[in-house]
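Q: Okay, next protein. This is Karyopherin (importin) beta 3 from Lates calcarifer. I've checked the sequence twice, so it should be correct. Can you predict the 3D structure?
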Amino acid sequence: MAEQQQFYLLLGNLMSPDNNVRKQSEETYDTIPGQNKITFLLQAVRDASAAEEVKQMAAVLLRRLLSSSFEEIYPGLTLEMQTAIKTELLTSIQQETSPNIRKKVCDIAAELSRNLIGNHPEILTNQYYLLSLSCPAHILVSIFGNQQQHYMEVISALLQTMEDQSNPRVQAHAAAALINFTEDCPKSLLIPYLDSLVQHLHVIMVAKLQELIQKGTKLVLEQVVTSIASVADTAEEKFVPYYDMFMPSLKHIVENAVQKELRLLRGKTIECISLIGLAVGKEKFMPDASAVMQLLLKTQTDFNDLEDDDPQISYMISAWARMCKILGKEFQQYLPVVMGPLMKTASIKPEVALLDTQDMENISEDDGWEFVNLGDQQSFGIKTAGLEEKATACQMLVCYAKELKEGFVEYTEQVVKLMSMPLLLECARVRGPEYLTQMWHFMCDALIKAIGTEPDSDVLSEIMHSFAKCIELMGDGCLNNEHFEELGGILKGKLEEHFKNQELRQAKRQDEDYDEQVEETLQDEDENDVYILTKVSDILHSVFSSYKEKVLPWFEQLLQLIVQLICPNRPWADRQWGLCIFDDVVEHCSPASFKYAEYFLRPMLQSLCDSSPEVRQAAAYGVGVMAQYGGENYRPFCTEAIPLLVRVIQAADSRSKENVNATENCISAVGKVMRFRPECVNVNEILPHWLSWLPLNEDKEEAVHTFDFLCDLIESNNPIVLGPDNSNLPKIFLIIADGVANESVKSEDACSKRLANVIRQVQVSAGLWTQCVSTLNETQQKAIQDLLNTA
């Protein structure tokens, strides 16, 4: 124990800012024998009482050790020690609560797997595969690449072990491993093995159900039920043929597993039924829906008798939400029953406390408390028990509001006191403008305050997103002067913080102790910062789209910070989002935006040829909105932009996966310049090229603009588009058919009726119709027919 404590001290010194302390510690670390290092590092990773930074350092060092010195150390360990390492890693992956540490342990497992398996995948047939596969499927991909034969070996080995009746604990481990594998497994990878997998699971489930009835053992059955749920969730509609094989037994478990010790089994079975229902769809599930609802209602009726820690509660709440998705509007009748417990769970208030060192000795993290050290021998503690259930309940409320809309209106007043979200405003609309305004006033102050004070970046981004959506929904006039003043100060603070954080990260990259682990942390921080920047952009977008040019005087307090984002030396994400904000200024403030042109026109033009596709995309979109909304002053810029846009479109790799969205924005921008600013371009010269670039398949919003313009050209009998004697019509049919097949044209789009009319006019001429349709394949012909039927 003392040795381990000394090792923790050593790990802490390895992270010391003092160069001498760190250097001395590195020398001491190097003298520790490899086998001892593994023992100490593994213990540190597994120790729940160790500080997170110590565990993180230990995980990085252990992975490095397995990567650089595997051959020298691992083969010399005893068989017991090797088994212990695998078991410890397996347990850590299953029990570790910190996502960051869990990911690092998975990385260690992947490194060990790669070294152990090497060119010998037959090792999967022994006990070790249990460790390999308790990591998510992406770890397997990192081990095997895309060699699909190994996945079948994995699944076969797991199923074989699940059928080992002599060792229930190993069976349960294998089932848990299967769950981890299928949860993260791409559908395309699972389908070839689905039949074999499902048949085995059915055999095991039947055997374990009998065992439960005869002996009362339930551990393996719990895991098998979750395995079935996980497989159904991944397989989706491909699970339909197996539905009748499982549903009777699952309903039987829910109906009969009423004893206290079977609560977890019952909860997991409820989850399984609802996931299968969601996977197979309403049509297949409906014959059982009523019976399942009655079973759930019976459990719900007894809900108040359930103890607070009853595991069925969280399963029930999630199951109701899935039933809502399956049944749609028909679910409204059950709201009076489900809302009470749901609101009770969503209203949980966590215990918080400010503790000194003496108090801390009496409370451990095992009691469900987490602590943040505030210095001066004080810590802030929060009791996390129930918080996960609270988060789930809040997600379910979002689900009900989204699915039921006006059917949820009775509950909006209760829910708004707990959480603010745009979906509640949509529900409240049914009660008229006065009720809607009252609800918004209640929400608005709370949301702005939360944006200014929320410390957790994940929660903050959700609040900012909700606020932006609410403004879009409420529109012009929803914010008063005080709101604007407060919001302006907050957004200014967020942008200043963004630049300050980047400077701090750059300084850390120059530090002597900068290494791979530090870079990983810095990149995570950078991603968080950029995500908040996207939410600043969302809020500005909603303000510009609602208030138009009236908001520009308010915007000027942020102008220099946005200009700073698009400087050439900034990271690409800064430039992307800075350009997006100026795109909104141009799009929604029309000619009034030109007074800021000196700040963004040149950077936008240069960004059309940027090495980052995201930056090119933002710049190309900007050219399009200048042509469409910007007014006369932007004419020279539109002319200058055309050859640059064409160069991007005609580049050899312009349609590669990473470039295609930027390229499609360039194609749309060329179309908008021809459509709205024809004086800026030689339309007759560019038009044949533009036609050859259609349709757009990835960017659905821009695709609609291109089809609108195409309709204009066809309806005006443009000779270049139609060609001599309508010779281009087969090509136009092909563009329309591909657009419909790829869902770039939808029946609700205004252009779909216009396109259908073009096709109907051709139908009148039998010869021309045959000529156009004969060039289309079966999918394209069906798409043309679908368009005629729906538009």
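A: Here is a summary of the prediction. Residues 1-118 form one domain. The CA atoms of residues 606 and 619 lie 9 Å apart.
Q: Noted. On to the next one.
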